[in-house]
Write a structure and sequence with these properties.
Layout (H helix, E strand, L loop, with lengths): L41 E10 L2 E11 L4 E5 L6 H8 L7 E6 L2 E2 L4 H7 E4 L11 H11 L4 H14 L15 H13 L5 E5 L7 H18 L2 E6 L2 H4 L4 E6 L2 E6 L1 H8 L2 E7 L2 H10 L3 E4 L4 E5 L2 H12 L3 E7 L3 H9 L7 H5 L1 H8 L1
Parallel strand pairs: 3-8, 3-9, 6-7, 7-8
Antiparallel strand pairs: 1-2, 1-4, 4-5, 9-10, 11-13, 11-14, 12-13
Helix pairs in contact: 4-5, 5-6, 8-11
Bound molecules: adenosine-5'-triphosphate (ATP) and magnesium ion.
Adenosine-5'-triphosphate (ATP) binds next to strand 2 and helix 1.
Amino acid sequence: MTGSDDATPVGPAQNSSSSSGPRRERALEDSGILSDSAPPAIDVKSLSKRYGENEAVKGVSFKVARGEVFAFLGPNGAGKTTTIRMLCTLTRPTSGSATVDGFDVFRQPTAVRRRIGLVFQEPTLDQQLTAEENLQFHAVLYRVPRHQVEERIDRVLRLVDLGERRKDLVSTFSGGMARRLEIARGMLHTPAVLFLDEPTIGLDPQTRALMWEDVLRLRSEEGVTIFLTTHYMDEAEYADRIAIIDNGSIVALDSPDELKKMVGSDTVELSTADDKLAGSNLEQAGYKVSVGEQSVVAFVENGEEQVTAIISTAGVPIRSVKVHRPDLDDVFLHFTGREIREGHAERSFPMHFRSFRR
Ligand SMILES: Nc1ncnc2c1ncn2[C@@H]1O[C@H](COP(=O)(O)OP(=O)(O)OP(=O)(O)O)[C@@H](O)[C@H]1O
Ligand SMILES: [Mg+2]
């Protein structure tokens, strides 16, 4: 580790403990969590990274509150890893500034490194060591006080439900178990902020769900702030807030629910014996509708709750009903004009994954 930083955080005095609790749906700024008196866990201003002609990250700005689970959602090459690398002091920003736990990533890299845990996109465990040995090695690297090492190893293995596999070689672990061990390792030195770069890539949906249980448990039991990247729409939903990044720029940032609201209302689509009549009945009752060739669509705030009223207001025999609530796929499409290329990253993964699992 290099860097000649002092241990004084930038800005007001820091407290590395964080609050845990229920999903923060929105308005972290309004609630004061991101106010000047309580500095954010991550504060990024106009951060850019240029590789030759390629501007991988184009002046992104955002704040992450303490104890928040914050997701960067974007397709391959969007700039997710590059942003993480800058925040973790592994890549020098071309311009802009950022603080992590109150310390400047550019001027105080050593202080930043002491306060973060990082799980890389590519697996980095030593296959020939046991889970415990991997953690012990990390404890030495991160100078975890000797008297705390055993207790921390116990605790982090329990947090990811791997206590029973402590003495087993990593080469005998499944892909999901190894990934969870990496997360445990990232938490060993009690970081204030844990960075997870694509923690669930290449894992089956069930293992991904388990991993998310781990992540949310870490937040609630250790109070850690979590910044993660993903290209999976469904799992970004677990985050308190999502920044959608595309071509190096943040194109939207809010809670999953608010992002969906920005995209539009729910729709209730009816196929009926007389769509025209159904449409005009609904319109007269004050519904916003669109009558197509095969169906009539009503645009409403809460489709599921309104479906019974819509059917009875339509006043004609109903053949089928579909309720659609905007999801993150719609959100991505709305903000970028195209669909996220899901599966692409997964296809690029198995090379690492195979060697990782042996
Ligand atoms: N060391 C590097 N040298 C040159 N270009 C780079 C380097 N690292 C990243 N890039 C480029 O920067 C852009 C963003 O890459 P980055 O790895 O941050 O994307 P990502 O969002 O993490 O993608 P993925 O989902 O595939 O991991 C890409 O165009 C990539 O080719
Ligand atoms: Mg990446």
